[in-house]
Amino acid sequence: MMLRPLALLAALAVSLSACAEKGSRPSTSRGSDEAWAHLPESVTNNAVAAAEVDGRTIAYSFAGLHAGKTWEDVTADAYACDLEARECRGIAGLPDGIGRLASVAATVENRIHIFGGYTVAEDGTEHSTPEVWIFDPVSETYARAADMPVPVDDSVAFVLDDRYVYLVSGWHETDNVDLVQVYDSAEDRWFQATAFPGDPVFGHAGGIVGRDMVVCGGAAVVPPETEGGRRSFVHSNACWHGEIDVSDPAVITWTEFSGHQGPARYRAAATGSERAGRVYFSGGTDNPYNYNGIGYDGVPSRPLDSVMYPRELRPGAEWGFDIGYATFGTMDHRGLVEWNGAFFTLGGMNDAQEVISDVRAINFD
């Protein structure tokens, strides 16, 4: 796998309410001492999802990168955070013990599925991993599912009908792929859906509401200008809507949004909210990097402190982003967890490119 990187969306700023009483709705805050909770260790580029245990919402973190940000700090560790109790603890890590970055997690029938990621060797060699692990939050045990047909990392995952998991685009070994790979959890099998029509990307983000997917940002590959030259990576300023066919889960109608608004985002935290009928994005950066927080251009990447959501789920005359600002910014995320009217990031990096242990709360009122 080679080193990789995002673009521009522009801005229609609308104020978003970012606070609420801590007992009822968590509030945004700056500073690690004001985080909603703390993971036992700092971790970033970790797969994040939530499940219910005894009627409580538990947010989970799997794999990622610890504070040293070297190949030796790539981890298979996992953590569980009781959001109501504001307490986090370590749990058994991925069963093979192999550390990986840029995995993605999705919850199906209250079991968390962890897909792919990539390993980093001492010599810097990176390898996309095919494994799919299924974590049972009640017994806190893992099972192995069918491997991905094409191993990807830095992808984005969407769940349909509490059965199908869609992995859209992402990085495979040496390049981005335009594949939409679908895992059928009921039959433990994979099939291909309608390919992603835009430039293939990694580090993108998005969410699903009903059968409507929204995918934005990431980094695309630009071929070398001359034979024997080096290829480069650019921001993607694209944002796509995908509608999954009601009678055939392999058929997706893709439409590109036009008039993009808001900052381009790389490794933002995002999710779809059935409750709100919206897809939310938070943080990320406008300067793509591989995994240490230093951009491909050699400039330290800094997280965006803005949050946004498309005003409409589907392309149309009223489409555009509502933009707001949190009181902090984080980046290097692989998911966003909804609980009690707020949304949570677990770990990530701060504006000094430091790996953090913070569990942060964001409101998109």
Automatic annotation (TrEMBL):
Residues 1-20 form the signal peptide. Keywords: Signal. The keyword Signal applies. InterPro entries: Kelch-typ_b-propeller. It comes from the Bacteria. This is Galactose oxidase. It comes from Hyphobacterium marinum. The lineage of its organism: Bacteria, Pseudomonadati, Pseudomonadota, Alphaproteobacteria, Maricaulales.
